[in-house]
Amino acid sequence: LAAAHETGLVHRDFKPDNVMIGEDGRVRVMDFGLASEALEIAADQAEAPTLSDSTRSIRLTRTGALLGTPAYMAPEQIDGKAVDARSDQFSFAVAFYEALHGCRPFAGDTARELREAIRVGARRRTERSPSVPGWLDRIVTRALSADPDARFPSMTELLAALDDDPAGRRPWLLGAGLVGVALAGGLLAANAWLGGAAAVEAPCRGLEEGLVGAWDPTRRAAGQRAFAATEASYAEATWARVEAALDDYTRAWVAARVDACEASRDGVQSDALLDLRIACLNHHLAVVRALVDELAEADEELLSRALQGVDALPRLDVCADADALTAAVPPPADPARAARAEALTRQLGVIEARFHLGRYDEAVAELDASVAAIRELDYAPLEIRARLWRGRLQHDMGAFDDAAGTFTAAYYDALGQRMFDEATDAAARVVTTQMWIGDPESAAPWIALAQATAAAARSGWAEATYLHANGLLARSRGDWSEARRAFERSIALMERIKGAEDLSTNTLRVELAAIAHAEGRVAEADALHEHAMAAFERILGPDSRMLSTAINDMGAAAYLRGDYRQARELFERALAIDTRTLGPAHPELSSALSNLGAIAKLEGDGAAARAYLDKALVLLERSVGRESIELAPILINLGSAEAMAEDYAQARVHYGRAVALRERFMGPDHPEVAEALHYLGTVASQEGELDEAEAAYRRARAIFEASPIPAEHKALSLGDSWTDLLIRQGRLAEAEVEAESILAARERTQGPDHPASSGALLNLGRARLGLGQPDDAIAPLTRAAALLEASTSPARSAPARFALARALWDASIAGGRDRDRARELATAARDDLGAQAGARGLLREIDAWRATHSGG
Fold it and tell me: pTM for this one?
C-alpha cells in the first residue's frame, strides 16, 4: 500500500477482502480498480449521493465521487471530499483494529448509522485483549482520527511506528541489576510519584525505579529466606515460581506505566486520564508490596497458597480502560483528602493480599483498623470496596448470613455510585452465599440483578462474574443444560480477558467438567480435567492445593466411569499433596479421605472405608461444625460403609443427618435430598423394613421426576435399589422388567462394559432364578461376575458368583448343566468372603446351600 502511494495511486477500497497471501508467503494488496476509476473522475464532481440504508457493507463503485466499502471508508471519503493516501491509511487502521479486537471500530446497523459513527469518531467500546499492548493500540487510534491531519503523514511513517516496539528498547533492570533507595512512606499520591500530568515532559524512562520498595533485590532476598526457613521439601521450587510470576507481573506493570506516560507525551490522552491511570497502577503496586510483605513472613501453610496469591494480583489492563476509569467516582480534589484516600487504598491492598493467602484473621484485623478512617474520609468507592472485602472474609470464614447482608448493602451502594463492576460482583456473591445458606429461592432475584448490572458495566469481566454465579446456581438446582451454557460462555470470556491457560479460566473448566460428567459426557469431562490439571501444575507446581483439587475431581470422574483403580491412585495422589502441604490434621484433607473411603467400600474393605471416613468427618466437623451442608457427602459414604458392615443403626444415624442437612440447606425437593433418601430407604430394606424402604424410594423418585435433570438420569435415579426391593417383596415379574430397563439405560449412558451395570445384571439373574428360569439367568449373572472381577476385589463379585452357581445347578436339573462348576463357584465365593464383616448373611446362605448341594 505504501508503494502504491509512492507512485501516486490511492486505493480507495482497502479492506481485508482485498489483501491476499500468495503461495510464496508474500502479502499482496489486490483490486486497484477503484484507484484507476477514481483517476477518471473530475475533482469537481457533483455532491456525493446518499448511502443506502439496507446494509453497511454496500459497495458503491461508480456513483458520483463515492467509491469503496462504507465500513472501511474514511470520513472525508464518505462525505465525498477529496481523498489522498491518508484516506487509505484510515481504511488500513479499520482493518488492523478488526484484526486486533475481532470487530470493526465503528458500529452501525445501517449505512447511515455507520457513516455518522465514523464522521464523529464514535468508536464502539471494546475490552482490550491482554495480547494487544497499549503502544500498538495508540498507533491504530491515531490512524483512525477523523481529521486526516491528525493521522500519520504517510503509510511509511505509520509502518515505522509499528516497527518501533518499545519492548525491544526498555531497560527492565529487574533482578540483581535493580538498585535504588526505598521511597519514604511507600507509594505517594499519583501526581507526586513518578509524575502525574506535570511529569510527561520528562522522557518516559526509568519508571522501573517505582518498583523499589515493592519488588527489588532486598525484597526478593527476604522472600527467598522466608521460604527456605520453612524447610518444606517444596519450598525452593515454589519460591522459584513465585519469583518468576512476580517478575512477570512487575515487568508488565512497568510496561503499563510507560504506556500511560507515552500516551500523554504523544498527545493521545488527557492529563486527567493520565492521573487516573497512574492512580490505578499505584493501587496495583500497593497490592504487590503487601503481598511481598506477607511472603517475607511465610510459614508452610502460606507456601501452599503463595502462587494463588500472586495469580490473584489485580488485572493491569483495567488501568488502560479509559471508559471505566472516567466513569468511576473521581478521587477527592482536596490534596490532604486525596493523600488519605491513597493511604487507605494501600491498606485495602494489604487486606487483599492477606485474603488471597488465606490469612483471614490478619485480614480482618487490618480491615477493622481501617474502617473508622474510611468512614471519616466519606469517599464512597473506598467504603464500597471495604464492604466487599468484609463480605468475602465473612463468607470464607463461614459467617454466611452476615456475608449475605454485607454483599446486599455493597450492591445498593455500588449501584448508587454507578460502580457497575462492583455491583455485579456483590450481586453474584449474594447468589453464591444464599446457596451456601441453603436458600436458592432468595438467590434467584439476585442472579437477575447480577445480569442487569453486568449489562450496564459493559465489561467482559462483569459478564463472566454473572455467568459463573448463574452456572453455580443452575447446577445447584440440577439444571445441567443451563449450567453448561453459563460455564461455557464464562470460559470464553475469561480466555479473552486472562488467556486460555490462566488459573481462573481453568478453574471454570473444572466446573464445566463436573457438568459434563453429570450429563454422561465422560470423554469431554476427562479432557477438561486434564487441561486444567496440566495448567495448575505448570503454573503452581506439583504441590499446590488447586492441583490436588483438580486431581481429586479427576479421581471422581474415574470413579463415575467405573475405573476404580485409577480413581484410588488419583485420590491417594491428592491426599499425599494435601498432607505434605497442609499437614495430616488439616480439614481440607477430608475430601480425598472421603473419596478413598468410597473406593475402599467398593473394594469390600469395610474396615479401611470406615477408617478413612471417620477421619474425614472429624477433620471437617472441626472446621465447619456439625451443621454444615459440606458434611452430607461424607455422612452418606460413612453410612454406606456401616450398612456394608451390617451396622444398620449407625448407618441410619448418618443417613438421617445427611437428609436433614440437605433439606435445611437445599429445600425438601432438591435432587440431592432424594439421593440421601434413597440411601435411607436402602438401609431400611436391608433391615427388612420393606414398607419403610418403599416409602423412602417413592418420595425420592417423585423428587427426581420433578427435577430438571435429563430423562436418562431420572431412569437411573434409584440405581438398582428399587429392583432389589421388588425381589425382597416377591414381586419378581416386576423386578425382571425393572432390571431390564435399568440395564438398557446404563448401557446407553455408560456403555456395555461399565461395572455399574453389574447391579442390574445381578438383579435380572436373581429375578429369573426366583421365577424358575435358571437357563435365562446364566447369561446376565456371568456378565455381572465378570464385570465385578475386572473392576473391584474378588469379594465384591461373590454375590454374583454364588447366584451364578445356583443358576448353573438349577439349570443342570433341567438340562444337564455342569454341577461341578456350580460347586466350584460357590466355594470360591465363600473363600473370597472369608470372615468379612458385613457378609455374615451371605456367608450363612452359601454355607446352607453347599450343605444341601454337595452331592452329585
Answer: 0.58
With contact defined as beta carbons under 8 Å apart, do 407 and 391 qualify?
yes
Specify the range with the lowest mean pLDDT, choosing from 56-65, 554-563, 736-745, 768-777: 56-65
Closest CA relative to residue 5, chosen from 77, 63, 70, 92: 92
User: 3-class DSSP state for residue 213?
Assistant: coil
Q: Which of 147, 143, 149 is nearest to 162 (CA)?
A: 143
Element (H, E) at 850: helix 840-852
Which residue pairs from 308-311 have beta carbons closer than 8 angstroms and sit at least 24 positions apart in sequence?
A: 308/356, 308/357, 308/503, 308/540, 308/544, 308/545, 308/546, 309/353, 309/356, 309/357, 310/242, 310/245, 310/246, 310/249, 311/245, 311/502, 311/503, 311/504, 311/539, 311/540
Find the helix or strand (DSSP H, E) in which 472 lies. Answer: helix 460-476
Q: What is the pLDDT of residues 665-717, one digit of tens each?
A: 878 888 889 999 999 999 999 999 999 999 999 999 999 888 776 666 667 77
Total residues found in the chain within this entry: 856
Tell which residue, 747, 737, 757, 845, has the closest CA to residue 799: 845
Handedness of CA 494, 499, 505, 509 (dihedral sign): positive
**CA atoms of 590 and 612, how far apart (whole Å):** 9
Smallest CA-to-CA distance from 193 within 218, 206, 210, 181 is with 210
Cα separation, 292 vs 43, in Å, equals 66
Give the residues across from 27 on adjacent strands: 21
Query: DSSP state, 69?
Result: -
Q: Judge residue 769's burial from the number of C-beta atoms within 10 Å of its C-beta, 0-12 exposed, 13-18 middle, 19 or more buried.
A: buried
Contact 824/808 with Cβ under 8 angstroms?
A: no
132: three-class secondary structure by DSSP: coil
CB 764 within 8 A of CB 802: no
Query: Residues 259-294: pLDDT tens digits?
Result: 888 888 877 788 888 888 888 898 899 889 999 999
More confident residue, 713 or 300: 300
Question: How far apart, in whole angstroms, are the C-alpha atoms of residue 149 and residue 380?
Answer: 42
- Angstrom distances, CA of residue 394 to CA of 160, 400, 463: 54, 7, 24
Angle between helices 85-101 and 155-163 (to 10 degrees): 30
Radius of gyration of the chain (CA): 34
CA 563/CA 542 separation, integer angstroms: 24
Q: How far apart are CA 262 and CA 205, in angstroms?
A: 10
Output the pLDDT for position 454.
94
Residue with cell 511509511: 156
Could you count the other beta carbons within 10 Å of the beta carbon of residue 584? 11
What's the per-residue H, E or C state across 367-432?
Answer: HHHHHHHHHHHCCHHHHHHHHHHHHHHHHHCCCHHHHHHHHHHHHHHHHHCCCHHHHHHHHHHHHH
DSSP state of 169: T
3-state percent breakdown (helix, strand, coil) of the chain, nearest 5: 70, 0, 25
> What cell does 514 get?
463436573
